[in-house]
Structure formats: C-alpha cells, structure tokens
Automatic annotation (TrEMBL), chain A:
<dbReference type="InterPro" id="IPR000049">
    <property type="entry name" value="ET-Flavoprotein_bsu_CS"/>
</dbReference>
<dbReference type="Pfam" id="PF01012">
    <property type="entry name" value="ETF"/>
</dbReference>
<feature type="domain" description="Electron transfer flavoprotein alpha/beta-subunit N-terminal">
    <location>
        <begin position="24"/>
        <end position="216"/>
    </location>
</feature>
<keyword id="KW-0249">Electron transport</keyword>
<keyword id="KW-0496">Mitochondrion</keyword>
<dbReference type="GO" id="GO:0009063">
    <property type="term" value="P:amino acid catabolic process"/>
</dbReference>
<protein>
    <recommendedName>
        <fullName>Electron transfer flavoprotein subunit beta</fullName>
    </recommendedName>
</protein>
<dbReference type="InterPro" id="IPR014730">
    <property type="entry name" value="ETF_a/b_N"/>
</dbReference>
<comment type="subunit">
    <text>Heterodimer composed of ETFA and ETFB. Identified in a complex that contains ETFA, ETFB and ETFRF1. Interacts with ACADM.</text>
</comment>
UniProtKB/TrEMBL annotation, chain B:
<dbReference type="InterPro" id="IPR016164">
    <property type="entry name" value="FAD-linked_Oxase-like_C"/>
</dbReference>
<dbReference type="GO" id="GO:0051990">
    <property type="term" value="F:(R)-2-hydroxyglutarate dehydrogenase activity"/>
</dbReference>
<dbReference type="InterPro" id="IPR016167">
    <property type="entry name" value="FAD-bd_PCMH_sub1"/>
</dbReference>
<dbReference type="InterPro" id="IPR004113">
    <property type="entry name" value="FAD-bd_oxidored_4_C"/>
</dbReference>
<dbReference type="InterPro" id="IPR036318">
    <property type="entry name" value="FAD-bd_PCMH-like_sf"/>
</dbReference>
<dbReference type="Pfam" id="PF02913">
    <property type="entry name" value="FAD-oxidase_C"/>
</dbReference>
<dbReference type="GO" id="GO:0005777">
    <property type="term" value="C:peroxisome"/>
</dbReference>
<protein>
    <recommendedName>
        <fullName>D-2-hydroxyglutarate dehydrogenase, mitochondrial</fullName>
        <ecNumber>1.1.99.39</ecNumber>
    </recommendedName>
</protein>
<comment type="function">
    <text>Catalyzes the oxidation of D-2-hydroxyglutarate (D-2-HG) to alpha-ketoglutarate. Also catalyzes the oxidation of other D-2-hydroxyacids, such as D-malate (D-MAL) and D-lactate (D-LAC). Exhibits high activities towards D-2-HG and D-MAL but a very weak activity towards D-LAC.</text>
</comment>
C-alpha cells in the first residue's frame, strides 16, 4: 500500500488582477486573495482518488511558505488528505524561494515519511517554472512521470500517459516515483461541508527548512518586476498597396 | 503567467467575456446570440404571433427621415442595412422580433434631443434600446419603430471617491462600470446575470433588481439623479449627485422603472457602496422547500448584516445549467439548492459567522450538504451556477418566463402545480423555479423546443390569476415590457392605472416613446 506525498503551493488566485508594486520589486500580495495552485488541486484529487481505490493508504500534503500556507493545507485536508506538513518559510527567504529549494525539502520529507509516490502540479501559475517535480526526482534519484494525464497502478510500478508536444507518450515507472499532474488528469472535487468540518481536526505539523537540513539562502536576485508592454493599437488600412508600403516602412519587407 | 490566463479562460468559457478596462465591448450576449440564431430557426415576427396588436397611427419611415438622421449622426451611426439592423430587432431571449428598418446610435444627450424632437414633430414611433437583455420583450420594436441605441453613450463622467457617487452616460455596460469602480474600491449597488451586456440606462429604466438587492436596496434608493430626454426633445436635468435633496417633486422616480415610456434616460448619478474586503459564497443542497425557507430565515438572523445574497434553485433549474452549459454541480444531486453570499469588512469575522451558521444548519438537518469558497475563482464558478440559469434555459428552445413576487410560504407551490397542469402537453420540456428567495421573488420558467400556442394558453392566464389570488406581483423585477401589458391589472388598481395614463399623456402626448409597452391600451 502506497504512501503518497502531495506538494501544494499557495498562489495568488487566478481570478485576481495582478498588480506590480510601485518599487518594481515584485507583485502586490498583501491583502490579495490566494488559493491553491490549480495544478496542485489536480494532484491532490489524484492522490485522494488513489486512496478511495485503495491504491494508497495515506496521503500527506506539504506546503512551503508563511503562516497562511496552512490555509492551503486545510483545503487539501478538506479534499481528503490525511495530514499536512507546513514547512515554514517567510519574509525575504520566501521571496527568493525557488524550485531548487522546494525540491530538496520535498525529497527529504519523502524519505522521512517513507513515501512511495510524490505528486505535484506540473507548474505553479505564478512562476510557471515547471521544475519542482523534475528536480525532486533527481535529488531522490527516483524515476519521474511529468505532465501526467493518466496514471494506472501496476505491480510495483505506474503506467503514466504524458502530454507532450507531439501528442501522448506512455511510460512505465518503477515505484517509488515522482509524478507531476497536468490539466486533463482529473477534475478536482469541491470540498463539501462535512469534509471541511472534519478537516479542522486533522493534524498539521510545522517544521522549518533547517530542521530538514535544507539551506534556503537566496540563489537568485530579483532585479526588477514590470508590467508587460501595453499592446499597441492596430490600424485599418485601405488596400494591399498601403499594406506593402507600411511593411516596407517598418523594415519588415 | 500564461497559465493564469489559461485558467481564467477555462472557467469563463465562450459565453462570458470580461472587459479589462476598454469600453469597446464584445457583448457576451451577442456572442451567445450568434450561436443560438445558428442553432434555431428565425424568431416569428411579433406582429404575426400577436395579431391582436395593431400598429398605431404613426408615420411611415421615409428616405427624407433617414437623410435627417444622417445629417445629425452621420452615415456610420445611422444603420439601415437589414443585415446590421436585424440583431437589434430580436431580444436576447428570442421571444419577440420587430421590423424596424433603422438603428440610430447617438453619442450625446444633444443628439438624442435632436432625434426625439424630430421624431415627435414627424410622429415617428421610437424604441429606446440599451443592452437588449430585457426579459419581457420591452427592448425591441413591435412594428417599425425607430431604434435608438445607447451603445455609443458609454462615457464615465466622474467618480467622487469621497461620496462614492458615480456619474455616467446611460450606455455604460454594467460590468464595465463594476470593473472601473473596483479599481477605486467601490462596487455597483446592483448585479445581475446580464451584467456583461446590459446598460445602466436600461437597468435604471426597468428598475432592475438582481442578486444584490437584498443588501443594497432598489435603484429607487441608490440612483441619486437622472438626466432624461422627453418625447418632444426637451432635456430634463434632474442629475443631482446629493444623497439628500428634498427640493420639490422627485422627478427622477418617473424615469426609474417606466421602461422608456416617459423619457429616454441619457445620464445616471448612482451611489456606489465600498467594495467589501471579504466575500464568501456557500452553495448548499437541501431536501425540501420548507428547509429552504427555514434556512433563509436562519441566514437572515445568524448572518445578519453580512448577508448580501440569498438565492435558490430547484433541481430542474440546476439540471438546465449543468447539462446545457456543461457546468459541474459541486455537491451532488439534491431536490433544492441555495446560494448564499456574505460581504463584509473583516474576513475572519465573516467566516466565523458563516461557519457557525453552516454547522448549525447541518446538524439540524436543514442543510444536507454544501461547499464554501472565498477565493475569487471559486466564487465566480459558484455564481455561474445561478447567474447563467437564463442562458441554460434558452438552450432548451423557447422559454415561457414568469417573474412573480409571492408571500414566502406560497413561494414554491406554483411550480409543482404548473408542472402537473402541463404534464399532458407533448411540447412541454421543463418547469422550474429559482430566484431571489431573500426578496420573495420567484422566477418560474417553462421550456419547450419551440413556441406553442396550446402550451401558452395552459400557462396564461392561470399563472397570473394564481399570483393575483395570493396578492402577489405579476412582475417582481422584470417589468411589463410588451409581454405583460394585458396582466398589469392583476397587480395594479384601476385608479393607479388611470393616473399612469394621465402621466403618460402629459409627458408623451403623441405616444411615440416605446409604444405597445407597459400600459395597456
């Protein structure tokens, strides 16, 4: 029976309008509504379904971040996860926390908790890095199945259908393994009231990266954060000759 | 951040579009309309379906008239090509179709004034049109009335951040105003499913209700001033922006709810509440209407001042949304559903109240199941289940739409009664009830694949007689428009109807403003 570790990230809700801070050091997060990264929701849903099918015995959700990351863990617990681990990273450290740090944290926890499967969303919608699953697998020296749109359990292995540029690729990985969830893997459930209430009693353990022996010192420096350039208005041209004229003017022809 | 936008579009689908800050709008209803007009045959002309309605003694449109309009608006704002005009002749819900041959698109009050003065002099009937999202056939012509569209009168004039008073032209789309206000920390005092297309002038002219009325009251309270143009072209400026102004008769009320029959609203001054810091939405499943009633009473008591919406749907309604629009029911099948929204200044305080309320409702068995959300993306998804009901029902084919106010105890009894009455009719598809239970306002909808006279006669006047017997209103918020002129007497005394006729004669002696609507002959 597999023990599953799910990584969930607290990100700015995708329906919120992003604002860049006036000092260009980042985006405004204070007082802004956050929610669980949608791809991580899909990962949680997959883990919960595995438990319902009795393929998994226990699901542990992990989130790295400030105190509010516990809200994200509560959402995971309300979806059916058994317990949560909050790795506390706040302030400046959190601003420069990167997949390279998170992957080491997840790897250590996977070992400590004796997980058979680590599953995360394929990327976070705030940084679009798409690195955590891959790096975690490398640190653990475990096989990986990324962009999973279908997972089937076999005897000591997983058959994963991956969504890749050319179409679909099917791979078989031996357990323990790392998987990253893609959009079409499943449709996450809504946490219903009885489960939301049950979730309040489920445990969340708090640890720090130091406890796990992971150094979260900054490896990058944010130089500036700016809005994308405003889209220039197009113009309606009279005929093909004018088009050719404009193309020549712009040096495109 | 590409995946953020990807998720936004996924949730939104093709039917709703949100404007960023631009006011040149792709109306979500127009997108939807093109889909529907492709799928379904053309709507029958109102003049054909209702042969008892006779064209009034108005002039026929001539080239001379068109030339005049073009001299005021220019050729590109005077639409005469049938392909262009057709969309303006049919209402969103495909119930009625007029035969207008010209659409005028003024940009200023002065242009509206010049147009109306001319039409009055020439005895040309006009049909003012906003977002064309009305549900009683009031926004499109019955015959060949000249359509005056407010779609180019979309300028925001001012926002006073101290008082929260917004002044804007009548053609501003409600959602665009909401987006603008949210950047300044305010919200509109009204919200409805048609927000992506409806114009504030139309909202005011129909005294629109919607899902926030429970909290912010009716437009008669939140609209501080109106600028309107009378039938003879005279501009009536009662565009006050003061909360308190008891100087003389409160003329603005004449234009709020008179559905364009007393004047064409050109500007609005509206008092906007501050944006709530914390919004929570709960979508609940219940077993019986009795439980719905108990829960809404208990919501009022326990959630008190933070409750901002209290809506209900029956399972037939939700089925129209989930099967026709491919949306997902988040909590599993139940006979009844409710959607509650809280809006407040303190998230923790509101959540604590909401959770306490939900816990007690569940342990008492009134609520069987539910889900809660405070993330904007989830809130939007849950609201879609209620806001897109009208759209979902249109996919069935033809919708017989009724909007009644009833005493709460009798609120739902008409639904099974009507379903039983229609059971024998072969064309009958669906009979469902949903609405603003917090305001005692039920939307009773019956659908069939296409319009059917037998079905129509089984429904009317039964539904109005039933409502009248219970001393309810035959039109809680949708207005009278074209469809309910014959039934206005069920909810208004003869003396009040006579006074309405007198006022109409005073303000529009030739009767050119939106004829065949609101007042019965």
């Amino acid at each position: 029976m597999a023990r599953v570790l799910v990584g969930v990230k607290r990100v700015i809700d995708y329906a919120v309008k992003i604002r860049v801070k006036p000092d260009k050091t980042g985006v405004v997060t204070d007082g802004v509504k956050h929610s669980m990264n949608p791809f991580d929701e899909i990962a949680v849903e997959e883990a919960v379904r595995m438990k319902e099918k009795k393929i998994a015995s226990e699901i542990i959700a992990v989130s790295c971040g400030p105190q509010q990351a516990q809200e994200t863990l509560r959402t995971a617990l309300a979806m059916g996860v058994d317990r949560g681990i909050h790795v506390e990273v706040s302030g400046k450290d959190y601003e420069t926390l990167q997949p390279i740090h998170v992957s080491k944290i997840l790897a250590k926890l996977a070992q400590d908790e004796k997980a058979d499967l680590v599953i995360v969303g394929k990327q976070a919608i705030d940084d679009d890095s798409n690195q955590t699953a891959q790096m975690t697998a490398a640190v653990l020296d475990w096989p990986q199945g990324t962009f999973a749109s279908k997972i089937e359990k076999g005897d000591g292995n997983l058959t994963i259908v991956r969504e890749i540029d050319g179409g679909l690729e099917t791979v078989k990985v031996k357990l323990p393994a790392v998987v990253s969830a893609d959009l079409r893997l499943n449709e996450p459930r809504y946490a219903t009231l009885p489960n939301i209430m049950k979730a309040k009693k489920k445990p969340i353990k708090k640890v720090t990266p130091k406890d796990l022996g992971v150094d979260t010192a900054a490896r990058i420096e944010v130089v500036s954060v700016e809005d994308p350039p405003v889209r220039q208005a197009g113009s309606v041209l009279a005929d093909v000759d004018e088009l050719i004229g404009k193309l020549k003017e712009g040096g495109h022809v | 951040m590409l995946s953020r936008n990807f998720f936004r579009l996924l949730v939104r689908g093709a039917h709703q579009t949100k404007s960023a800050v631009s006011f040149s709008y792709i109306a979500s209803r127009k997108l939807h309309k093109s889909v529907c007009l492709q799928k379904n045959p053309q709507v029958e002309l109102t003049a054909v379906r209702y042969p008892e309605v006779k064209r009034g003694n108005y002039s026929e449109l001539t080239d001379r008239h068109i030339k005049f309009f073009e001299s005021i608006l220019g050729k590109d704002r005077t639409l005469t090509d049938p392909a262009d005009v057709e969309a303006y002749n049919v209402d969103w819900i495909k119930m009625v179709r007029g035969q207008s041959r010209v659409v005028l698109k003024p940009k200023t009050t002065e242009e509206v004034s010049a147009i109306l003065k001319y039409c009055n002099d020439e005895t040309l009937a006009v049909c003012p049109q906003g977002g064309n999202t009305g549900l009683v056939g009031g926004s499109v012509p019955v015959f060949d009335e000249v359509i005056i569209s407010t779609s180019l009168m979309n300028q925001i004039i001012s926002l006073d951040e101290l008082s929260g008073v917004l002044i804007c032209q009548a053609g501003c789309v409600l959602e665009a105003l909401e987006t603008y206000l949210s950047e300044h920390g305010f919200i509109m005092p009204l919200d409805l499913g048609a927000k992506g297309s409806c114009h504030i002038g139309g909202n005011v002219s129909t005294n629109a209700g919607g899902i926030r009325l429970l909290r912010y009251g009716s437009l008669h309270g939140s609209v501080l001033g109106v600028e309107a143009v009378k039938a003879n072209g005279e501009v009536i400026d009662c565009l006050s922006s003061l909360k308190k102004d008891n100087t003389g008769y409160h003329l603005k009320h004449l234009f709020i709810g008179s559905e364009g029959t007393l004047g064409l609203v050109t500007k609005v001054a509206i008092h906007c509440p501050p944006s709530p810091k914390a919004v929570n939405v709960a979508f609940l499943g219940l077993n019986s209407f009795d439980d719905v009633l108990k829960t809404s009473i208990s919501a009022r008591r326990k959630l008190g001042e933070v409750l901002s919406s209290c809506e209900m749907l029956d399972h037939v309604t939700l089925d129209a949304v989930t099967s026709n629009l491919n949306l997902r029911n988040p909590i599993g099948e139940h006979p009844f559903y409710m959607l509650l929204e809280t809006s407040g200044s303190n998230g923790e305080h509101d959540e604590a109240k909401l959770n306490a309320f939900l816990e007690s409702s569940m342990s008492s068995g009134e609520v069987l199941d539910g889900t809660v959300a405070n993330e904007p993306s989830r809130i939007q998804y849950l609201w879609q289940l209620r806001e897109r009901v009208a759209e979902g029902l249109v996919h069935d084919g033809y919708v017989f739409k009724y909007d009644i106010s009833l005493p709460l105890k009798e609120f739902y009894t008409i639904v099974p009664k009507m379903a039983e009455r229609l059971a024998g009719n072969k064309k009958f598809l669906r009979c469902c009830g949903y609405g603003h239970i917090g305001d005692g306002n039920l939307h009773l909808n019956i659908t069939s694949k296409e319009f059917d006279h037998d079905l129509h006669n089984l429904i009317e006047p039964f539904v109005f007689e039933w409502t009248s017997k219970l001393k309810g209103s035959v039109s809680a918020e949708h207005g009278i428009g074209f469809k309910k002129t014959k039934f206005i007497h069920y909810s208004k005394s003869d003396s009040s109807l006579n006074m309405m006729h007198d006022i109409k004669k005073l303000l529009d002696p030739k009767g050119i403003l939106n004829p065949y609507k609101v007042l019965p002959k």
